Amino acid sequence: MKNVLLALLPLVLAAPLAQAQRRLPLYSGVIPNATPSAVQEITEKASDGSERVRQVVQPELVVYRAPLDKANGTAVIICPGGGYESLSMGKEGYQVAERLNELGVTAFVLKYRLPNDAAQPDKTQAPLLDAQQAVRLVRQQAAQFNVQPTRIGLLGFSAGGHLAASAGTHFAQPLGPNPGTTSVRPDFLVLVYPVITMADSLTHAGSRTRLLGATPSAEQVKLYSGELQVSAQTPPTFLVHAQDDKSVPVQNSLLFYQACLHHAVPAEMHLYPKGGHGFGLRNATTKDDWMERLHNWLDANGWLTR
User: Fold this and answer.
1) Could you tell me the superkingdom of the organism this chain comes from (predicted)?
2) Span 80-115, pLDDT tens digits
3) How many domains does the chain have?
4) This prediction's pTM
5) In this structure, what CATH number is given to the domain that contains residue 296?
C-alpha cells in the first residue's frame, strides 16, 4: 500500500497545475469576420509528440496562472507558430507558458484563427482580430487574473511572431465592428524566429500565401510587412533568431530591430550562429538558454517586480 501511495504522489503534486488551467473563449457572442461553414477544427500530434491544431473555428485562450507565491502581475499572451497553416500549441505554447509561470508571469496561450477563405470573409484580418481581442480581454479582466493592465505582453514564434509584431504595430485603429475603448496595444513584444517582412526575397512564402493569397497587392505587402509599420509607439521588443534559419531568414529579425532603432524603440536581440528554425524553448546547438536572456530583459524593465 505504501508503494502505491508513493507511486501516486507525483500525480497528486501535479494536479494543482492542471486544475489551474482553463479555456477562455475570445468572444462571448458572435465571432467577427466569420462565415458559417463546414470547416471543423483538427487536433493532432506533431512529430515531437506535442499538440498541433489546424482549422481553428472557435478562438480561445488557454490560461496558465502564475503560482500565488510567485505572481508579479505581468501577463504574456503566447502566439504559437505554424506558418499560418497550423498552431504548434505544445512546443510553442503550453511548454512556454509553464516556463513563464516559473518567472511569476501569468501566461495565456492563444488559439487564434488561421486564414481560411471558406470560414472568413477576409482571411487577412482574422488572426489579427483574434490577437487584438486577446489583449483586450486580458486587459479588461486583469483583476480577475491578478495581473496589471499595463503589463501585458505578446510572445510569438515564427508566423505567430508575425502576428505579435502586427499586433504591436497595428493597434491605433483596432479591427472589428465594435472595437470599444480598451487599448489593444501590447506593453512589450517577444519575437522568436519571427516572420516579419512580406517582401519576396526574405519572407516565408507559405505564411505570406496563406495570409495574403498568391498574388498580394503592393499595398497588402506593405501593410503586413512589420518592419514598415514600426513607429515610435511600437512596444519595447525582444528578438531571438538563428543565423542558419532556412525557413525564415534571420534578416526578418534584423529588419525589425533596425526599424526599432530608427524610431528609438527599446529593443534587444539575441542571435545564434546555428539552431535552424522552430527550436522552441531549447536551441540544441548551444548551452545558452534564450529564456534566461528573456528573464533578464523582463527583470531589467521592471516587469518581474512584485
Assistant:
1) Bacteria
2) 999 999 999 999 999 999 999 999 999 999 999 999
3) 1
4) 0.92
5) 3.40.50.1820
